[in-house]
Specification:
The protein has 62 residues and is mainly β. Helix content is 0%, strand content 61%. The protein has a six-stranded mixed beta sheet, with no helix packed on it.
């Protein structure tokens, strides 16, 4: 199972949005992250980059 950490705009401790992300849903101007226990978090923005092997997701936000 590949779980990821989601970040806003860049990878740093200060920009972590959610840990243990297992699912990502992209909408018109939103990205919804769903973690291992089913918690959902929606961010205004778009998916910038995801590396499933390295376990990170970067979201482009304002």
């Amino acid at each position: 199972m590949c779980l990821s950490t989601a970040y806003k705009n860049e990878i740093s401790d200060e920009t972590v949005v959610m840990n243990n992300v297992m699912e990502i849903e992209c909408g018109e101007n939103t990205v919804t992250l769903i973690d291992l226990i089913g918690r959902r978090f929606t961010v205004e923005g778009s998916l910038l980059k995801a590396s499933l092997t390295d376990g990170y997701v970067i979201l482009k936000t304002e």
